[in-house]
Amino acid sequence: MYLFCKISAYSLTWFNNNFGSTSFYFHCTGLYCKLGETAADAKFVVRETNVPSALGSNQVKVQVKACALSPLDIKLHEDLKFQRDLVPVGREIVGIVLQVGPKVTFFQPDDEVVGILPLDTAMSGLCDAVVINEHHLVQKPEKLSWVEAAGAIRDGLRAYTALHTLARMASGHTLLVLDGASPFGVLAIQLAHYHGVKVLASALSSEDQKFLEQLRPSVGVRESLVARVIGVWDAKVDLVDSCLEETGGLGVDIVMDSGVRLHEEEPEARCLLPYKHDIITLLGVGGHWVTTEQNLQLDPPDSRSLFLKAASLSFLNEEVWGASSARQGRYLHIMKDIVEKLSTGTLRPQLEDPVPLYDATVSMEMVQKKQVRKRLVIQL
């Protein structure tokens, strides 16, 4: 079933003649997550929503050309108490500006833009058109494709937040990227290498290891992006020993995890994750650990080890950029840099083939269950 927007010309003319056009809405159908009692009960459904035709002062209406799908953090929505049964799906969008509000200064109609809908948006990015504040958008370079722009903007933002904002990455540092073959991991590796950082990466399978070993800065360059690939899928390989061997026993300056093993008995999908003690052990003096593990807890001995190394721990949550207007300028600067590096080939995202609109529901179910390895983009 195709998603669609519909608007009645007769109704619009009648409404404008009688009341003016300032409060008119048109209907747009998009993809939403219907929340249940638990996260496992959530279902993805197609629903109709209202999009205002009259824009606010700094709002922009964008015709969506492509939208990336990322797993929905249902717990985060519950924590923020948005109090809604339907959560919009698809926030990383790219498209063409159709209309701008009276105080918009960055864009004009027909501009090609890319951005991320705010966390509290009521609109799905899979609508034909969305309304968004201009401060959540940046210009898309002409030679950058719709699919690449949508598929990389969120992972690029996460990589910048982790490496620049939290870890204060600098040339000469050594970085360990856990699960380096993930969409986030690949962009983090490319960004770190660009800034002169020595990169180590873990691989969760023999296929991932082969892929990482073949990563190059650009076509025709023989130099590898990754100084050492650590195949943690092989029981004979020890993550800590490999990192200490590669750094001469000094440890790495930055660790970026993709989750942490919290208990001895974990689901099979988490069995290859490192223990927190292992990460602390392989950290060097003054090192930075950037974690995506929301439920991480440190025991007193772990905290003592971090203290003795003068090391730091940061939680990666890229949603904080939308929490304060004071960070808006830096947020836009990061997104502009991401799309520029995408257009020059410095960043090259790992994407699945574009998916048509009618497969959006099934595709999102696969994304939510983490059955898709590469980033998935819906092409409208």
TrEMBL record:
Classification via Gene3D superfamilies: Medium-chain alcohol dehydrogenases, catalytic domain
SMART domains membership: PKS_ER
SUPFAM superfamilies to which the protein is assigned, alphabetical: GroES-like, NAD(P)-binding Rossmann-fold domains
GO molecular function: oxidoreductase activity
Protein name listed in UniProt: Crystallin, zeta (quinone reductase)-like 1
Residue ranges annotated for the Enoyl reductase (ER) domain, each copy included: 37-378
